[in-house]
Amino acid sequence: MTYVMTLLQIALFLGLLGFGAFYMTKKAKKQQLHKQGQNGLIQVKDGVHLNHQISAYLFEVEGKQVFTILSNSGAHSIELKTNSFNQALQESLAKTEAPS
C-alpha cells in the first residue's frame, strides 16, 4: 500500500512540474510577441515562426503597420497600406527564398 502512495506522490509531483513548465513557456511566448519600445513608437503586434530559419512579424511603427520577414539571408520589411497582408506575405517569402 505504501508503494502505491509513493508512486502516486511521484506522479503528482511530475504532473505539477510539467504543468508549471508548460505554463511558464506559454507565458514567456506571449510576452515575447507583445513588446513595446521605450517611447511607445514601436509595438510588436503578432509573429510566427514559419520554419527553423524564417520568422514573420507584424509591427506597428508610429501608427503604420509594417510586415517583416526575418531569415538567415536577412530581413525584408513592407509597409502595409491597405489590407494587402496576404500579398505582402507572398512577396516577402519569395524574396527570402530567392538565391542572393
Estimated structural class: alpha+beta
How many runs of DSSP E, i.e. beta strands?
Answer: 4
Helices, by number, come to 2
| Residue share in β-strands | 25-35%
Mean model confidence by pLDDT: 80
Low-confidence stretches: none
> How does the major sheet shape up?
4 strands, antiparallel
Helix and strand pattern: HEEEEH
Helix share bin? 40-55%
Distance between the termini: 68 Å
- Shape verdict: elongated
Strand order of the largest sheet: 1-2-3-4
Radius of gyration: 21 Å
Topology at a glance:
Elements: H1 2-33, E1 42-49, E2 55-61, E3 64-71, E4 74-80, H2 85-97
Antiparallel strand pairs: 1-2, 2-3, 3-4
Feature tags:
100 residues; four-stranded antiparallel sheet; 30% strand; elongated; alpha+beta; single chain
Explain this structure to me?
By secondary structure, the chain is an alpha+beta fold. It contains two helices and four strands, in the order αββββα. A four-stranded antiparallel beta sheet has the order 1-2-3-4, with helices on one face. A hairpin with a 5-residue loop joins strand 1 (42-49) and strand 2. The longest helix is centred in the first third of the chain and has 32 residues, at 2-33. The protein starts with a helix and ends with a helix. The model has no long low-confidence stretch (mean pLDDT 80).
The gist of it:
The protein is of the alpha+beta class and 100 residues long. It contains 2 helices and 4 strands, in the order H-E-E-E-E-H.
